[in-house]
Amino acid sequence: xxxxxxxxxxxxxxxxxxxxxxxxxxxxxxxxxxxxxxxxxxxxxxxxxxxxxxxxxxxxxxxxxxxxxxxxxxxxxxxxxxxxxxxxxxxxxxxxxxxxxxxxxxxxxxxxxxxxxxxxxxxxxxxxxxxxxxxxxxxxxxxxxxxxxxxxxxxxxxxxxxxxxxxxxxxxxxxxxxxxxxxxxxxxxxxxxxxxxxxxxxxxxxxxxxxxxxxxxxxxxxxxxxxxxxxxxxxxxxxxxxxxxxxx
Length: 248
Description:
Radius of gyration: 17 Å
Order of helices and strands: EHEHEHEEHEEEHEHHEHH
CATH class: Alpha Beta
CATH superfamily: Spore Coat Polysaccharide Biosynthesis Protein SpsA, Chain A
CATH topology: Spore Coat Polysaccharide Biosynthesis Protein SpsA, Chain A
CATH architecture: Alpha-Beta Complex
Number of strands: 10
Number of domains: 1
């Protein structure tokens, strides 16, 4: 019996430095029934040329280009729209998967009939591996509001159970918005404690902690529509947990 198709969603913007490593980590998966849908958000470096080299060699790798720069959420949504797989998985253009990632996670989901899962991951900076983030056994809507324990590079959801779910059209925190939308439909997202992905901390917004906090506050107020009291409560917990997470 053929394994279900997994659609890997990758947004890209000026990602020439690391995107080849990210693509290679998908190509090297022990689970081979996948398609990699890369939507470029109007890069002005060599990102598109690098992706085209891969797509010319492997028909499972597909490149799309946004008409204008719209942010990672818009790019991810375009790839989700094009996706043909039962499972939707996420990987950013500077992160990587370990070779057993899809085999382990898809088997875990099929065996237990889980609609939405995530895994542990390890930080990388340059070529050096850093701290490991082990998630709780599960999370739910209420818990996730105060702490986004789902690393985007580890998340997978099942369209057969949930239908296609898209990210909110906001510049930042789109992933958390999607997780919350899913957790309005199902009670829990289940995790795997195995480290199955590598998260880069020396590129993009990851480096700017104050910027992250600003967007988090706006997310609570403008996307989730929390009142000032509830937004302050969750923001405080999120900030403390975020500090602890980034100190690993």
